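Re: How this chain folds, sequence and tokenised backbone to follow

Filed under: protein folding, tokenised backbone structure, sequence and structure records.

Contents: The amino acid chain and a row of whole-number tokens, matched residue for residue.

Body of memo: The sequence and its backbone structure tokens, given next.
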Amino acid sequence: MQACTQEEVNKVMESAKSAQKLWAKTPLWKRAELLHKAAAILKDHKNPIADCLVKEIAKAAKDAATEVVRSGDLVSYCAEEGVRVLGEGKFLVSDSFPGNERTKYCLTSKIPLGIVLAIPPFNYPVNLSVSKIAPALIAGNSLVLKPPTQGAVSALHMIHCFHLAGFPKGVISCVTGKGSEIGDFLTMHPGVNCISFTGGDTGIAISKKAGMIPLQMELGGKDACIILEDADLDLASSSIVKGGFSYSGQRCTAVKVVLVMNSIADSLVKKINEKLGKLTVGPPENDCDITPVVTESSANFIEGLVMDAKNKGATFCQEYKREDNLIWPLLIDNVKPDMRIAWEEPFGPVLPVIRISSVEEGIHHCNASNFGLQGCIFTKDINKAILISDAMETGTVQINSAPARGPDHFPFQGLKDSGIGSQGVTNSINMMTKIKSTVINLPTPSYTMG
């Protein structure tokens, strides 16, 4: 994998800047046509890209293939939505504001920002790249992708699909390298007009250095799952296992803490444990449910959280087991607020359970977190669900389902340290454009049919 130098980054930026000027003049229908073509090529390359995801980030084979197809669908949807969103402007007349005659006509439209820098995470290096690429390109921007160190090979294959589709040279580029060498250089580069970042607390540092440019940040979460006494425990336990342990828990929207009412805690924990016992553990090539986490340092961090909970008296529902980066699924019951795992994001196949005596206690724990990405509630009482949802300080609340990002056109955003701005196809297109106004001044007031 090439480790780009700062000089090479400058050359990429120069190319992106000159290409963007011409790309912005490309008809909107033509931009959409090229995106549809790229989506089709991406789907045609499903198998080799999915194989790359399996080998590079240990994603189970079936999930890897799903990610590629989902990404192709996202690109096509974005092309269609872009034609609608960007094909419309606004027409304002001056006499709608008090004190004015109709002497001014204002025409507004959306225009590109320039160069968008996209920085996706390792866990969805294809999908969370195209969710930034497609909106940027349909809006007339050029895009520079800085893929994650783990996931860079998969991202390069994905970028190649856009090149095969016929996008002009310089419109979409990829810069690989070490964040310690080119990270700050990229995010503080004067040629960058917008940054879309998905990852961890690195995003907070980026936001402090980036200057006066639009930022789209998704920085993780400690997604709480509140289980009320009237909840369907079969549905809740299935959702918790899927939401907490899919891709070994390495998802921003994974269930990160279960807050369950005392009266039903034993029953819920029993059902979760029964389902955890059926999960397969092993290599991603075998389509196992639990596969190795992405790096040894990640596994060490997870183990630190687990040992802290054990030393402070938490109940382990399974024996803690680890082989290199492979950690077996673990439910940790009777977690207390003084334990690190009650607050920190493990990004692994371990899940804490906190027993609560009231709904207010669950809401308080959720809102005391510095994160605010998503949360979920399980109850049969829709009135309670709405009231609790309104009280939870998170960007999204799921009712009777685990947290999730998607479908990809849904708004996706976090509060507090979980991010800035909102994602989703339409929101991303709007965020990667700015408003341009042209005002026509008339010599005398003019009224239709007057």
Summary: The chain has a mean pLDDT of 97. The longest helix spans residues 61-86. The two ends are 69 Å apart (CA to CA).
